[in-house]
Every structure is written in structure tokens, then in C-alpha cells.
């Protein structure tokens, strides 16, 4: 005995169930995103503020967005994304994104009112752990401290005072270009006023 096929039950019903499941999941994802986004933004802002304070201790943790035109060079592969000046005029902290081996590398560079680099901190990267990340070690980054100028955005031009990490030349170059861009931002603004 043959049974009659019911088109609604066999074809339309499963499609409707899948569509309803998709709508419910989409709604739940949007709800979770709406709840967590402000928390993530707040944590990100707090981490950035903490990093600025560590890079320019003389600022006493008080910074304001400089509202300056941000420097971009090398066909937008290296560019400043933020520039905060210390409220007490002691310097600025510039956030720069630079193209590295694994993708974008984000660095924050502290510069005092005399144009001297007070510190460099990598806040985000996609470089290979253990290889490219060697260019982000505090020992490597501390080479920039005290510099008021870099003659070139090419790290190889500074072989006498800044040593690139062997095996991580692209990452070392990305860090160097980020620091160079931060100094260019400082110069473009005429220093700290």
C-alpha cells in the first residue's frame, strides 16, 4: 500500500522550522552583542588609558584627545589612529597602526614635551608567537626610549643604535615604522602646546 506524500509536511514544514531557528538565533546574538558591547568598549578604553599613563608617567593619568589631523604615510600602511596630549602639557601618546608580518600591529608611543620618546607599547598584533613577537619584547622596545628623532622609517638605517630582531625583520620594521610615524605626528602638531 502506497502512502500519499504530504508536500507541506515533507518540504515546507522543515524549511519553516529552520527559518524560525535562524530568526531566534539572530535575535539572541544581537541581544548578547547589545549587552556586551558597552562593557567591551569600557574595558578597551580603560586599558588604553592605563597604557597611556604607563608610557607618559609625568601626565598623572590625565589626557585629552588632541583633535589633530592624524599622520598617514606609506600608502596608508602606517598611520596614526589616536593622539592624546597630557592635560598638564608634559607630552603626548600617539597610537599607530603599522602593517606587520601577520597583519596590523597597534603600538602606543609616549613622547614628552621635549620630543623624547618615553616608551613604546604594543597593544595589539597578529604576529607569530615566539618569532615575530620578539620584536615586541620590552628589551627591544626600550631601544627607542630617549630618541628625539629617527633619520628614516627604515630600521636598517639605524643599525648603530637600534638593532632589529633576527628572524623577525618584518615585525621589527613594523615597530620601527610605528615609532617613526608617532614622531612625525608630534612634529606635525608642532609639539605639545
Task: Describe this structure as you would to a colleague.
- This protein has helices spanning 7-55, 138-141, 169-188; strands spanning 63-65, 72-73, 78-86, 91-99, 104-112, 117-124.
- It has 193 residues and is α+β, with helices and mostly antiparallel strands.
- Strands 1, 2, 3, 4, 5 and 6 form a six-stranded antiparallel beta sheet that branches.
Short description:
With 193 residues, the chain is α+β, with helices and mostly antiparallel strands. The protein is 38% helix and 21% strand. The protein contains three helices and six strands.
Helix residue percentage = 25-40%
Give average pLDDT, whole number.
87
What radius of gyration results from the CA coordinates?
A: 24 Å
Question: What structural category arises from helix and sheet content?
Answer: alpha+beta
Main β-sheet: number of strands, strand sense, barrel status? 6 strands, antiparallel
Q: What is the H-and-E element order?
A: HEEEEEEHH
- Which segments are poorly predicted (pLDDT under 50) over 5 or more consecutive residues? none
Total domain modules: 1
Shape: elongated
Amino acid at each position: 500500500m502506497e502512502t500519499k506524500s504530504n508536500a507541506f509536511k515533507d518540504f515546507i514544514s522543515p524549511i519553516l522550522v529552520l527559518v524560525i531557528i535562524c530568526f531566534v538565533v539572530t535575535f539572541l546574538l544581537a541581544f548578547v552583542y547589545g549587552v556586551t558591547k558597552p562593557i567591551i568598549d569600557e574595558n578597551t578604553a580603560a586599558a588604553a588609558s592605563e597604557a597611556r599613563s604607563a608610557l607618559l608617567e609625568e601626565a598623572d593619568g590625565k589626557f585629552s584627545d588632541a583633535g589633530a589631523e592624524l599622520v598617514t604615510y606609506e600608502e596608508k600602511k602606517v598611520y596614526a589612529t589616536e593622539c592624546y596630549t597630557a592635560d598638564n602639557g608634559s607630552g603626548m601618546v600617539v597610537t599607530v597602526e603599522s602593517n606587520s608580518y601577520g597583519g596590523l600591529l597597534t603600538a602606543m608611543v609616549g613622547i614628552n614635551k621635549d620630543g623624547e620618546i618615553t616608551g613604546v607599547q604594543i597593544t595589539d598584533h597578529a604576529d607569530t608567537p615566539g618569532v615575530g613577537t620578539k620584536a615586541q619584547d620590552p628589551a627591544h622596545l626600550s631601544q627607542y626610549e630617549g630618541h628625539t628623532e629617527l633619520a628614516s622609517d627604515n630600521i636598517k638605517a639605524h643599525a648603530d643604535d637600534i638593532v632589529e630582531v633576527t628572524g623577525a625583520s618584518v615585525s621589527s620594521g613594523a615597530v620601527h615604522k610605528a615609532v617613526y610615524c608617532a614622531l612625525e605626528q608630534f612634529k606635525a602638531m608642532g609639539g605639545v602646546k
